[in-house]
Amino acid sequence: MKNKKRSNSPADGLLGLLFPGVLLLFLAVNLLVPDRTMSEKENRELASRPGITLSNMTGGAFMEEYENYASDQFAGRDIWRSIKVSLSRLGGSRMENGVYIGKDGQLFEDISVPDQGQMSENLEALKGFRERHADIPVSMALVPDAACVLSESLPLFAAVEDQSQLISMVKNEMGDSVNWIDAVSVLNRHRSEKIYYKTDCRWTSLGAFYVFQEAAPVLGIEEDVSDDFVSYAVSNDFNGNLASKSGVFLDEEEQIDIYVPTVGDSDVTVTYVDEARKTTSLYDSSKLETKDQYDVFLGEDCAVTDIKTVSTSSDRLLLVKDSFADCFVQFLTPFYREIIVVDPRYCTNTVDEIMDTYRITDVLILYSGNTFFTDNYISGVFSGE
Description:
This protein is an alpha/beta fold. The chain contains 13 helices and 15 strands.
């Protein structure tokens, strides 16, 4: 018996027309919709259309750049990303785009594993700097990341490095060459409090204040500073960089606090040296209207920031830091005549040059663990070359 030839139904014909029609519609929309430079939801710059050059065409870079561009500029990207994250969460995923989804809505950045070669270079550069400035007090603090202190809130079976051991290794390696500030122990004692944001990789002003209280005697501040500041909320709708990166808890709203001295005059003049721009506040309130409200502390990252105070002290502090230190500066201004803040990621000068230019009397190195263990700029600014 011969097989009967299957006849095409009207539905088959409709689907045959519908699929290429939808495809053409998407292509048309992508061509007509203007490219975006920034994703507010992801809080990052989006890839732009790559230019055609001989090098990127022959080296294969053009196709990779174009794929990134097409992915970033795809029409409805935010909607599709939201659907993907929702489906992934329904499937039980506890990690999105490298971000752990912990208990009670806590998001975690993974603990970075240091490159041993780069780490050795950084530590040797720091020790060399210390030898060249043996007469200057140098203090150092490495702030543990949330996954280290709040490890009990990590999702089940999350395998992260023991950052406290990595920090201890640095402390032992530096030895007596620096005055060590034990941020790990302090934050562990206060782990039940809001010392880290839930949706951001950074610590809160409260966490910074607890570490400042530990740091004060190390820095030569003899008075009890526990009652020297009062906090004020400046935002109640902060949604941080880990929420943006993961696409999870984008509706979560958190509080940002600033701390001001309870006594004395807190007037400052802040100069962003490379930009030749001045302001009279540590806080950039305009950043509270942007996605990354944490930039309210000192504004956007800058190579060198010069903060002059009305303190009666004659000391001038050099603070070498990452973004964790931005909310720490507010506790330092009553105790130093001038604070020079250096971010090695953007700085083209060496620390030796800055020491001479600003007649520095004290140095504080303050980093988050993750940044310090992956930073490839530290050795450059501290090398003295």
